[in-house]
Amino acid sequence: MTFDTEFKKALQLLPEKEKDKLILRLLKHDLQLANRLYFELVNTDSVEDKREQLRNLIIKRIQLASERYYSPGYLLMDVREISGEINEHVYIAKDKFGEIMLNCQMLRYLLELNHKRVASETPAKSRTLCVYIIARIFKILILIQKQHEDLHLEFREDIEALGKLVASNTNLMKTAINNGLDINWLLEFDIPYNITEIHKEIRKNGFLK
Prior knowledge:
By secondary structure, the chain is mainly alpha-helical. The chain has one domain (29-204). The protein is built from twelve helices and no strands. It has helices at 5-12, 16-27, 31-41, 47-67, 72-93, 96-120, 123-146, 149-152, 156-167, 170-178, 184-187, 195-204. α3 packs across α5 (72-93) and α5 runs antiparallel to α6. It is elongated and about 65 Å long.
C-alpha cells in the first residue's frame, strides 16, 4: 500500500502524544517491526552478539532434532523453523553477513549429524528434505555473490565443506544434479557471476520445488 503526499502531511501535523499512541498501537500488530525498533533503539547487544547467540541456539536445536530423529519430514520441519529464526534475525539486525554465515552453519551442522540418515533413506522419502537443502545452498551462493568480493573468502571454508558433504551423499548428489546445482561451484569455491540468472531459469523450468 502506498500513501499519498496529503496523507503523509496530515500524519506529520498530528500532536506528538497522538502519534505515540498510534505508533504503539500499530507495533502491537507487527511484532517483527517492534523487535527491530527495540534492537535499534534500546538493546545494547551488537549485531555480532546477536549473531553469535543465534548460532549457539542453532547448534543446540539441530543437536536436539538429530537426537530425536524420526524421519526426513520431521527433520525438515525443524530446519524450516530454524530458517525462520534466521530470517527474523536478518530483518531485525539487518545482518546480511550473518544471513550467509548462519545458513552455512545450519546446513553444515545438519548434514554432519545426519549424513548417514539422509543417505540411507529412499529417494522418495528424502526428496523434499534434499530439495530444500539444495535450494538453500543456491540461496547462499546468490547471497555471497551479492557481497563485496573482499568478503567472499570469509565463506570459503563452509562452502567447500558443504560441497564435500553433498558430494558424498547419494540422495543429495542426485538431487543437486537433477536441480541444476553444479557441485564444483562449492568444491572449487567458484560461484558463477550470473548465479542469480541461472537460479531463475532453473526455477522457471519447474525445479527446486
